[in-house]
Design a protein that fits this description.
Helices cover 48% and strands 13% of the residues. By secondary structure, the protein is an alpha/beta fold.
């Protein structure tokens, strides 16, 4: 799948916001390039053949095939492809299954940008050594974030890719107030940046997906 040049990433997930979050992460990572996104196993298989990614991230649920099954098919067809299973929640059984199927790593959607980027790089460098952070083996209960109507408005604008200045203009508030709303929103979502906020929004179903 290519040993030189930028790491070519294909994001596979049924959630549009999860795909957008991964795309944002890759766009802001040095030496990473997004070759495409896929919302189904059928799309993913065609795109892997067409785009020759270095690494593919795979969500656990797809409309036409279980994510682990797709990852197993990809491992059989492309032995040197880095394969990362992206989990919505910690799940020891899924982590064990990913290791047994020969994947490169398992990681949580809510992992930090640094962790996600490091996992992409490690999977590209050595796709045959399985890695998974210890927190994936625990499943703590986590309440769904409660957002105010204003915070939902701000979140919807973030999903659209608006800057803080554009959010302020759209909501007729000052830039300082917009900055405060975004900061509070990130705190509630336990997100450090826009990418994590998008991934949490997808996981928790905080906004309707179109």
């Amino acid at each position: 799948m290519g040993d030189s040049g930028p790491i070519r990433v294909l994001a596979i997930d049924d959630h549009e916001l999860a795909r957008l979050g991964m795309a944002w992460l890759v766009a802001h990572g040095t030496g990473l390039t997004l070759v495409g996104t896929a919302g189904s196993a059928r799309q993913a298989l065609a795109m892997v053949e067409r785009t020759a990614p270095t690494v593919a991230t795979v969500g656990t649920k797809l409309p036409d095939l279980d994510g682990l099954e797709l990852a197993g098919i990809l491992r059989d067809r492309y032995p040197h492809l880095g394969l990362i299973l992206v989990l919505a929640e910690p799940d020891p059984a899924q982590v064990a299954a990913a290791a047994q199927r020969g994947l490169s790593a398992a990681v949580a959607r809510t992992a930090s940008a640094a962790t996600l980027t490091a996992t992409l790089r490690a999977a590209a460098a050595d796709p045959h050594t399985f890695r998974a952070p210890g927190e994936l083996l625990r499943a703590p209960a986590r309440p769904t974030p409660r957002l105010s109507p204003r915070e939902r408005q701000v979140l919807a604008l973030l999903v659209e890719g608006r800057t803080q200045a554009e959010i302020a203009q759209a909501l007729h508030i000052s830039p300082a107030t917009a900055k405060t709303h975004v900061a509070r929103l990130y705190t509630k979502l336990q997100a450090r940046n826009r990418s994590q906020a998008l991934l949490t929004t997808a996981r928790e179903g905080l906004l309707p997906l179109h």
